[in-house]
C-alpha cells in the first residue's frame, strides 16, 4: 500500500502530472454542490464532473449508488481515474465508490477543507453512514495520491476551519504537552503560513501512526481519541435532525474523554481545564441532559471499535502517553458526561 | 493475505474448530432460500441466520443492503463472523457485505455448489450486479477460511453440477490437452470420488494462478478465458429477463473464445470440435441471431477487463499456452459468433 502525499499550492500542476503519468482511460471529478460552485471553476481540469448534494446527511447509500450510476453512464473502466474534490464527505464516499467500482479503480483525494486535509487525507478509511450510524460501512482503500493545499481554505466558513482544528488538537494530545499548549495558544483563523506549518506537523503525526498499523489492529486505535464520545454526539445530533460538524463533535468528545483520562489515568487537571476552556470558547456547547445518556451510551456500544458491546475508548495518562482499549462501564461514562456538563455550565 | 482452504466432508467439525479458534463476538450465517431449506438444517451450527432470496437476479444492491440491515439489527461488531453458506451468489454478496460492514468483518465461505467450490471458493472476488451488468461493483477480499466439501452436492439439481463443471473445463484448458481430454471423457454426474479428485486438481490450478497475482494485474487474467463472451451472454439473458446459469454461459463462452483462439492463434481444430460437441450435448444452445450482435458487443466493451472500450479476451495458442490481453475487433468477434452458430447449428 503506497500513497503519495503532496503539499503544494500548485494543485493544477500536481493534477496534470498525475494524469500524464497514470494515463487513465477517462477522468472523473467528484464534487459536492459547494465545491462544484466555489472550487472546481478554479481548477484547469479536463474531467467529467459528478456532483452530489453537500452535507453529511447525504453520505448515504443512495448518493453512493448515484456515483456508481454516473461512472457507469460515463463509461468508466477500472483504468479510469476519480478525483475526489471536497471535504471528508466527498473523499470518504468517493473513495468507497472508487474502491468498489469494478472491484476498484484508482482515485486521488484533493481535500478542500482543513478537516479533510488533516483527517481524511491519509489513512485509507472510506465509508458512508448507514442505519443512522456514522461511517457504518466502508472499506480500507488508499488514494493513489493526496494533494494537500491551503489555497481552498479561503472559500470556507470559519466554522470549517475550527472543525479541522479539532483533529489537530487530537494529534497534539497524542504527541506532547508542548504541542498541545502550542495549539491552544493559536487560532486557525490566524496566520495562514503558521497554520500550514502546524498542519504539516499534524498530518505527519497521523501518517506515522497509520503506517505502523494500516488495518487498525493496534496502534492506530490511538487516532480514536475523542471519537467514541464524539461519534455518539454526532449520532444523537442526527437523531435530533440537527447535525453537527464532525470536528465539533470531536472537540467535545476530546473533553469528555479527557475527563475519563483524568479520573482513570491521572491526565493532568490543569491541561484538561485549558482544553475545556478553549473548546467552550471556540466550539460552544453540545447541549445534553441526563435524559440523553441512554441514547448516547447505546450509540457508543454500537461503535465499530466495540468488541462485545462494551464501551471502548482510547485514553491518555498524559499527552503522548496513550492507553488503548480502555473499557468504560456505564456509570463511569455517565459520571464523565456529568463532569462535561459541569465544565460547560449546562 | 492468507486464506485456509479445507477439503473435508466433516463440515460441522471444521466450523466448530474455526469458531473456537477465532472466538467471534457473534456468529451469523448467510443462506439463500434454498440453502436455508436444504443445507442449514444439516449443520449443527449456533448462528443467527440471515436469509436472502435465491438467484442471480437478486444479487442486487437491495439484497446487499438487507444483509447490512440484518448484521446491524443483530448487533454485529467487526469482530463477529459471517459464514456464507451457499452458491457463488451467496459467497460473492456475503463476502462483499462482510468486507464493507464496519470496514471489514471476517467471513468464512462454505460453497454448496460445484461452481461455488471450483470458482468462488478461492480468489477473493466479491461483488454484486449493478445497472444490468454482472459483478459490476465489489471488492477483493479473502475469506478467512474456505471449506470445500462434496456432501452438499446431492442436494443439487444436475444442472448445477454441469454449471460448475464448465469452470473445471476452463481450468483444464489452461493446463494441458491431456487434462482437457480427461474431463471431456467424464461427466460430473458420474462417480463422486472421481469428481472430488478432479475438483481438487481444478481448485489447485486456480489457487496457483491467483497466488501469483492477487489483484488481477497480470497472470490472473488467464482465468478470464471464456468469460468475456460468457458474461455478455449472461447480460443478454438478463436483458431478456430469462437468466442463464453462469457456468452455462462460461461453457458457451469457452466455445466462442476457442473459435477465436483457433482462427487467430491456431488452437487445434480437433480439440475445439470435441469441446463444442461436448458443450452442445450437455449444455444445449444459447440462442442468438445476428440481431443480437450489437448488444453482445456493447456488453463486451463494458467488461471490467476492457481498458479503452475495446473487446479484450484471454485466448489460447494451445491448451496451457495462454495469451493475455488479446484485443478483438468487432468484425473478428462477429465472425467468431457466426462460427459458434455454425457449430451449434443455429
How is this structure best described in words?
Two copies of one chain form a homodimer. Chain A is of the alpha/beta class. The first copy, chain A, has helices at 11-22, 33-38, 61-73, 88-100, 114-120, 158-173, 177-184, 192-211, 227-239, 246-265, 269-283, 293-301, 330-343; strands at residues 4-7, 27-32, 48-52, 81-86, 107-111, 128-130, 133-137, 145-148, 311-318, 321-328. Helix content of chain A is 48%, strand content 16%. The first copy, chain A, has two domains: 4-156, Rossmann fold, CATH 3.40.50.1970; 159-343, Dehydroquinate synthase-like, alpha domain (Up-down Bundle), CATH 1.20.1090. The mean pLDDT of chain A is 92. In chain A, helix 2 links the parallel strand 2 and strand 3. The N and C termini of chain A lie far apart (46 Å). The radius of gyration of chain A is 20 Å and the shape is globular. Chain A is built from 13 helices and ten strands. The longest helix of chain A has 20 residues, at 192-211. In chain A, the strands form three sheets. A six-stranded parallel beta sheet of chain A has the order 1-8-5-4-2-3, with helices on both faces. A two-stranded antiparallel sheet of chain A has the order 6-7. Chain A has a two-stranded antiparallel sheet with strand order 9-10. The interface between A and B is large, with 37 and 36 residues.
Amino acid at each position: 500500500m503506497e500513497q503519495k502525499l503532496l503539499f503544494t499550492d500548485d494543485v493544477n500542476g500536481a493534477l496534470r502530472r498525475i494524469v500524464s503519468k497514470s494515463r487513465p482511460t477517462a477522468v472523473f471529478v467528484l464534487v459536492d454542490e459547494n465545491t462544484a460552485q466555489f472550487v472546481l471553476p478554479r481548477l484547469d481540469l479536463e474531467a467529467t464532473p459528478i456532483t452530489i448534494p453537500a452535507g453529511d446527511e447525504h453520505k448515504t447509500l443512495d448518493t453512493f449508488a448515484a456515483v456508481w450510476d454516473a461512472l457507469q453512464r460515463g463509461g468508466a473502466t477500472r483504468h479510469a481515474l476519480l478525483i475526489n474534490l471536497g471535504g471528508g464527505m466527498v473523499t470518504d464516499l468517493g473513495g468507497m465508490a472508487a474502491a468498489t467500482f469494478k472491484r476498484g479503480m484508482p482515485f486521488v483525494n484533493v481535500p478542500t477543507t482543513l478537516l479533510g486535509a488533516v483527517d481524511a487525507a491519509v489513512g485509507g478509511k472510506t465509508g458512508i453512514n448507514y442505519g443512522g450510524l456514522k461511517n457504518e460501512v466502508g472499506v480500507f482503500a488508499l488514494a493513489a495520491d493526496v494533494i494537500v493545499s491551503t489555497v481552498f481554505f479561503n472559500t470556507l466558513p470559519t466554522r470549517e476551519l475550527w472543525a479541522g482544528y479539532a483533529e489537530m488538537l487530537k494529534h497534539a494530545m497524542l504527541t506532547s504537552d508542548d504541542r498541545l499548549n502550542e495549539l491552544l495558544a493559536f487560532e486557525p483563523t490566524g496566520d495562514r503560513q503558521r497554520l500550514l506549518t502546524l498542519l504539516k506537523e499534524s498530518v505527519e503525526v497521523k501518517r506515522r501512526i497509520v503506517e505502523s498499523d494500516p488495518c487498525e489492529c493496534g496502534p492506530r486505535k490511538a487516532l480514536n481519541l475523542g471519537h467514541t464520545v464524539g461519534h455518539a454526539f454526532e449520532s444523537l445530533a442526527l437523531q435530533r435532525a440537527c447535525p453537527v460538524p464532525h470536528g465539533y463533535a470531536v472537540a467535545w468528545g476530546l473533553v469528555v474523554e479527557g475527563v475519563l483520562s483524568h479520573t482513570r489515568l491521572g491526565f493532568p487537571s490543569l491541561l484538561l481545564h485549558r482544553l475545556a476552556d478553549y473548546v467552550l470558547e471556540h466550539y460552544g456547547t453540545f447541549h445534553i441532559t441526563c435524559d440523553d445518556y441512554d441514547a448516547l451510551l447505546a450509540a457508543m456500544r454500537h461503535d465499530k471499535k466495540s468488541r462485545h458491546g462494551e464501551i471502548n475508548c482510547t485514553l491518555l495518562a498524559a499527552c503522548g502517553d496513550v492507553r488503548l482499549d480502555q473499557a468504560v462501564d456505564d456509570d463511569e461514562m455517565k459520571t464523565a458526561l456529568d463532569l462535561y456538563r459541569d465544565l460547560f455550565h449546562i
